[in-house]
Design a protein that fits this description.
single chain; alpha/beta; Rossmann fold; SH3 type barrels; five-stranded parallel β-sheet; 13 strands; disordered N terminus
């Protein structure tokens, strides 16, 4: 989530460090704290700031030293944080600090589609290069079957994106076409094995959640007495045996919240019939926006998809932050 920048104004200074918000606040990553207990930095840049919940936002603000600069960057149309609050949206609405609108739509059919969803329009988009493919399905069983077919065969063959660079996104973990069912089917096709270590085998694609709201994609390397050894972004992570069940899931299929902050060459969004209640404009915008080159939509919700884009905004959240920020806004005249 976070990217604190080291002082790079002097010759030979180290390049800015990129760390997580959790690691920065706990002291496990980043520059540490000064004698007064404040973070030892002059500038803190937080991308994907819409994912900051109230607690993380408050801790960040309290931890900054006097005179430090805080830059929050994010997409206001994307899903809000998993935790309570809507810090980024409240700050934007209050207009208590300078704002710069800098996002340019991605080029091509995918950029046109996602930009339209962001303003509540799901229009017909020409995709001559098969950048967008709609796959109608009748039920959840067919949705799982077609998803596996797309990831393992159709997308690699027709688009040239291998299975390991294709991400499946679905609304929830449960149900006949949730992440659990999809991951089981994808594992059986892509990396079958007995799952001797808590259901995992070497080569399995996983996501590790070392802290609430933090998701690290990776792969299983091995398992031994120390725990489950993962490779996450080129780094080795060892998850103790007693924490595997609660912090590691298979990662061929994710929820949109788990996928936030990531982009993949190809994405398969699965919308089974029982997903209707979970659909909203921010969910669809976030899920569709994870695709860089190709998007397949396994579509079983019929008119619920355009209706959600046009009529279902983010669920309202009640927070005190707008009230607290109001006195900070200068009164004209």
């Amino acid at each position: 989530l976070g990217a604190p920048s080291a002082d790079s104004g002097s010759p030979g200074a180290a390049p800015p460090a990129v760390v997580t918000v959790t690691g920065l606040l706990t002291g496990a990553e980043g520059p540490g704290r000064d004698a007064d207990g404040a973070l030892d930095l002059d500038l803190l840049v937080v991308p994907d700031a819409s994912q900051l919940d109230v607690e993380a936002g408050a801790l960040l603000a309290e931890s900054l030293p006097d005179g430090a600069r805080l830059v929050l960057a994010g997409d206001p149309a994307a899903l809000w944080s998993v935790g309570p609050g809507r810090v980024f949206a409240d700050l934007l609405a209050a207009r208590v600090c300078p704002q710069v609108a800098s996002r340019l739509p991605d080029p091509g059919p995918l950029g046109e589609l996602v930009s339209g969803v962001g303003i509540g329009e799901l229009g017909q988009v020409e995709a001559p290069g098969k950048e967008i493919v709609i796959v109608p399905v009748r039920d959840a069983g067919e949705a799982v079957h077609r998803t596996v077919q797309l990831v393992a065969d159709s997308v690699p063959r027709a688009i040239g994106v291998p299975a390991e660079e294709t991400q499946v996104i679905t609304p929830g973990h449960g149900g006949a076409a949730g992440t659990r069912a999809l991951n089981a089917a994808l594992k059986e096709r892509l990396n079958p094995g007995p799952g001797r270590f808590g259901g995992f085998d070497p080569g399995d694609r996983v996501v590790h959640s070392p802290a609430p709201g933090r998701v690290l994609p990776g792969r299983v390397v091995k398992a031994d007495a120390d725990g489950l050894h993962l490779s996450c972004a080129g780094e080795t992570v060892v998850v103790p045996r007693d924490r595997v069940e609660g912090s590691v899931r298979h990662g061929w299929a994710l929820t949109a919240h788990q996928a936030l902050g990531g982009r993949w060459p190809a994405v398969v969004v699965v919308l089974p019939g029982d997903a209707v209640q979970a659909l909203s404009r921010p969910w669809i915008y976030t899920a569709f926006g994870r695709a860089a080159r190709h998007l397949s939509v396994v579509h079983g919700v019929e008119q619920a998809l355009p209706r959600a884009v046009a009529e279902v905004p983010a669920k309202p959240r009640t927070t005190r932050l707008p009230v607290l920020l109001t006195p900070q806004v200068p009164v004209a005249g």
